[in-house]
Amino acid sequence: MKLAFSTLGVPGLPLPDVLRLAAEHGYHGVELRAHREEPVHPGLTPSERADIAAEFKAYGVEPLGLAGYARVAAPGDDEPVLAEIRALLDLARDLGAPFVRVFPGADVAAQPPEEADATAARRLGVAAELAADAGVRILLETHDSHRTGADVIRVLGPVGHRSVGALWDVMHTWLGGEQPSETYAALAPHLGYLQIKDIASAEDTTPLPLGAGVLPLAECVEVLSRHGWDGWLCWEYEKRWYEAAPPLPGLLSAGRDHLARLLNDSA
Fold this sequence. Notes:
Structural class: alpha/beta
Largest sheet: 8 strands, parallel, barrel
Distance between the termini: 11 Å
Oligomer: single chain
Order of helices and strands: EHEHEHEHEHEHHEHEH
Mean pLDDT: 98
């Protein structure tokens, strides 16, 4: 499996510094938070995009994906959501990133689950053709209104398109009460990659160094290894939302070593 980390852990850091961290600490790729606060976002010009793609190549680091914020199950018109996804796909294509992340984002107080599922499936079905043209996969994250694999598969099943898959966030499936083996069984045909992290408890989700908390990282790696899955593990350290958390750069080497031990043990 390949290792990456998300720029959510180093908010606002210039991209050359991010890539230098990845290269120095043994990470194969970087997930880019695609937001206006960050150096990489859909508002970049063609020349800026070309420069970013060249920087990745120069450091020998891969752009894993764009972590976007489109909410495919949210109430409202389809077109603004599709336009947001289209902009992410165009940027991913220009950077050579294989994946774009979207959220479910249903309004659970106002939308029946069946309506939210149908809305998300309809939008993703349209976006799938755009993704195929761009050579990029859209990944629906286990998050918010659809935090388990069982929730996400209700959307992906009706879509039935190779260009739409799943992003497994191990914290959300755990918070949803789902075992790693259950999540894998639900998402395996659609799985793009995993976002891994660690926290102290369900009540305290402040990011911790990998292995210092309660999330079942060893079980996740073990089930993936048992089934021969060889994709990406991406450390999503949520420093942007928890300013008091220790800086990510000082944790990267130990995090890589922890994941290497888990991979070795599972083998």
